[in-house]
Specification:
Layout (H helix, E strand, L loop, with lengths): L5 E3 L2 E3 L3 E3 L9 H9 L3 E8 H21 L15 H13 L4 E7 L5 H10 L4 E6 L10 H18 L4 E5 L6 H10 L4 E4 L7 E3 L4 E3 L11 H10 L6 E4 L6 H10 L3 E4 L1 H6 L3 H15 L25 H10 L3
Helix pairs in contact: 4-5, 7-8, 8-10
């Protein structure tokens, strides 16, 4: 058998297949099954800012009620704010269920007090923290430069707060993604996860209302992270994690050839079950044996832009050549 072991953010993984943050990683019964099927790590479902705000509001209401009923109650209530205890319990269950790394996920929308919650996750045993930045940029009064600055501040505050590795899950919708990726890299992130997949609201004509149902990814969606993985490989210090659109062994291999350190999986596991990891692991092993590769590192990044015979294939020149070659 081939050696599938991978080093991601300094963590030793038995394979490059990672369970992405999703409803799959929200259920403790899936953890051991994922490890047994070949997962190299698990990214827990995200702790959202809205959840933290809701928890804090509930705490404030409880404090107000008890203080009004008994003035002495204030001296017995904890002075610090607390985050959702359910998430910390989920993290604890995951750590007890598996030996592979467990990565916590914070879904950040503003810098605020995220460093406090990052500290709690680190103290609770998270092997790393994935900071999931969800910035739509819908406010016309806010410039792209301001959005970048806010994202960098989030990263900086978390990086300063914890010693465990940090992965940053980002959107591709920056004016110059290569430039902002270098900026994030300079802040000391250990990995870039490409990409955050936004919820795209639809319109229900029967109800004459917005429909915000979550749609699973499709294989064609992997082309965007594939392109940027190939462009960034060897040009940033951070590891690269592919996310979105990888459904089969072919997709896994392509992402590794482009330069991904690991491949995160969600939709394929939701469609086929967590044990689908075993088929992907077997498929990767068989592909490596056919290519006479003894380890993943032997071919990772071999088709990145840095190593490609025609680096222009990832940029505009290839588009122009294709258009001009069509009989129109």
């Amino acid at each position: 058998m081939s050696d599938l072991s991978t080093r991601y953010m300094g963590l030793e993984l038995p394979s490059p297949l990672v369970v992405a943050s999703s409803s799959i990683s929200n259920k403790p019964e899936n953890f051991a099954a994922a490890e047994a099927s070949g997962a190299g790590a698990i990214v827990l479902r995200s702790l959202f800012e809205e959840q933290i705000e809701a928890a804090e509001t509930a705490l404030e209401e409880a404090v107000s009620f008890q203080a009004d009923a008994n003035p002495e109650a204030r001296s017995y209530l904890p002075p610090q704010r607390i985050g959702p205890r359910e998430y910390l319990r989920l993290l604890d269950k995951a750590k007890k269920s598996v030996k592979i790394p467990v990565i916590a996920s914070l879904n950040a929308a503003a810098a605020g007090s995220w460093s406090e919650y990052a500290k709690q996750l680190e103290a609770s045993g998270a092997d790393a923290i994935e900071v999931n930045i969800y910035q739509v940029g819908a406010d016309a009064a806010v410039t792209g430069e301001q959005i970048e600055a806010e994202c960098i501040q989030i990263v900086r505050s978390v990086r300063k707060a914890v010693k465990v590795p940090i992965a940053l899950k980002v959107s591709p919708f920056f004016t110059s993604f290569a430039n902002v990726a270098k900026k994030f890299d300079a802040e000391g992130v250990n990995a870039l996860v490409l990409f955050n997949r936004f919820l795209q609201p639809d319109i229900d004509l029967d109800r004459m209302a917005l429909n915000s149902s979550m749609q699973l990814s499709h294989p064609w969606e992997m082309l965007l992270p594939l392109r940027w993985t190939a462009i960034l490989y060897g040009r940033v210090n951070a590891d690269l994690a592919a996310s979105t659109g990888v459904h089969d062994t072919t997709g896994v291999v392509k992402m590794l050839l482009a330069g991904s350190t690991v491949v995160q999986l969600a939709a394929s596991l939701l469609r086929n079950g967590v044990t689908h990891l075993a088929a992907l692991k077997t498929g990767l092993d068989e592909w490596m044996e056919r290519g006479h590769y003894s380890a993943v590192a032997d071919f990772r990044g071999s088709l990145s832009q840095k190593e490609a015979r025609d680096p222009r294939a990832f940029e505009r020149a290839q588009y122009v050549n294709l258009i001009l070659s069509q009989n129109m």
